[in-house]
Amino acid sequence: MRRIKRVTAAVVLSMALMTIAAGCSQGQKKAAPKLPAKFCWNAFSPEDVQPLLPAGDTLKEDTESFRFSERKRFVNCLLYIDGNDGFHAWAKVEIDESFTERNTYGSADPDPIPVGRRGIVWNTGATTHISCRPAENTDPLSGKYLRLSIELSGAAEQNERETLPGLLKQFTAFAQKQLGCG
Question: What does the H/E/C string look like for the chain?
Fold first, then answer.
């Protein structure tokens, strides 16, 4: 009889401890992996991008060199969180401004922003373009315009319309300096 009471008490105690432990772990919010000091061509501040990343354990960066040529008109930087897209910045050389006439982002209900030429922002992204005629001592571009975009792969209800214009300004300043746009 005494033994049954001890076993019962041990089972009840262990169940109580498991319940408490499970409750504590559910209350902890998982964080995004820490960004390195330099990422995505060093165009962005880690402090500005870090809060925009989804939660996860591992971070992988896939970045191309920020150089353009007649054959290479597109570059991008992707940050993957646990193998899924988390942050995407890209630049593309354009010959003219006809791409702005397409209603590519209409369903995202974009707002105009004062970044570059015809900048727009939506809940999870921002895009603009700049006129870019590189200085004499830099690589020539095969077009007249450089389109710059940032896209987040967060939750559907994520709204970063306040944050993204600042990041797009950083990206634009970086591209102008890197390419020597005059």
Answer: CHHHHHHHHHHHHHHHHHHHHHHHHHHCCCCCCCCCCCCHHHCCCHHHHHHHCCCCCCEEEEECCCCCCCCCCEEEEEEEECCEEEEEEEEEEECCCHHHHCCCCHHHCCEEECCCEEEEEECCEEEEEEECCECCCCCCCCCCEEEEEEEECCCCCCCCCCCHHHHHHHHHHHHHHHHCEC
How many C-beta atoms lie closer than 10 Å to residue 16's C-beta?
10
Please state, in angstroms and as integers, the Cα–Cα distance from residue 115 to each residue in 28, 81, 147, following that order: 38, 28, 12
pLDDT at 22 over 50: no
Specify the pTM: 0.78
- Pairing of the two strands 145-152 and 84-94: antiparallel
What tens digit of pLDDT does each residue of 90-126 get? 999 988 877 776 667 777 788 999 999 989 999 999 9
Task: Flag whether pLDDT at 66 surpasses 60.
Answer: yes
